[in-house]
Amino acid sequence: MKHIETEIVISSTPDKVWEVLTDFEKYPDWNPFIKSVKGNRQQGEQLTVRIQPPESKEMRFTPVILKYKKNNELRWKGQLGMKGIFDGEHYFKLIDLDNGQTSFLHGENFSGILVPFMGKSLQKTEKGFEQMNVALKQRCEQANVPREKIQIKKASQSPKKKIVKRPGSPK
């Protein structure tokens, strides 16, 4: 068995983090690791998940949701081929830090006969978890900024060129 766990503190409440985390339809807009999730968000339901670890090909899984506890934990289990070959129990846990912040735990327990041979793939998977964590943090914290404080620079607002005239140069 192999276990990967990553953690990041997000300056947002668990309910806001949960809202972003479980809005599967918007994953393509922000999530660099989990490219898409389709299916009903309920315990016992099967999902279709597409992931792409860094420097790897995209993979598709059809895990089953083991736990769906609002604002607290989402956990699913999938497998590569038959059960026992390469199985993964993926989880996301939200811990309320009681100060407007959330500790986000993102991990997976791997089991099966192929696990000892998956070292490099699992290292890339861990990097993918970390990239997703950072992207989730940015998305949640950006959602906390009032719209009037967000500055969007339009293409027409490019900086003015300053023309410097040297003495003796033509006009």
Architecture overview:
- It contains three helices and eight strands.
- The protein is of the alpha+beta class and 171 residues long.
- Helix 1 (14-21) crosses helix 3.
- The radius of gyration is 22 Å and the shape is globular.
Short description, anyone?
The protein has 171 residues and is an alpha+beta fold.
What is the element layout, followed by pairings?
Elements: E1 2-10, H1 14-21, H2 27-30, E2 34-38, E3 48-51, E4 59-61, E5 64-69, E6 73-79, E7 87-96, E8 102-111, H3 119-143
Antiparallel strand pairs: 1-8, 2-3, 3-4, 5-6, 6-7, 7-8
Helix pairs in contact: 1-3
Instruction: Give the structural class.
Output: alpha+beta
Shape: globular
Instruction: Give the neighbour order of strands across the main sheet.
Output: 1-8-7-6-5
Radius of gyration: 22 Å
Beta-strand segment tally: 8
- Run of helices and strands: EHHEEEEEEEH
Return the average pLDDT rounded to an integer: 88
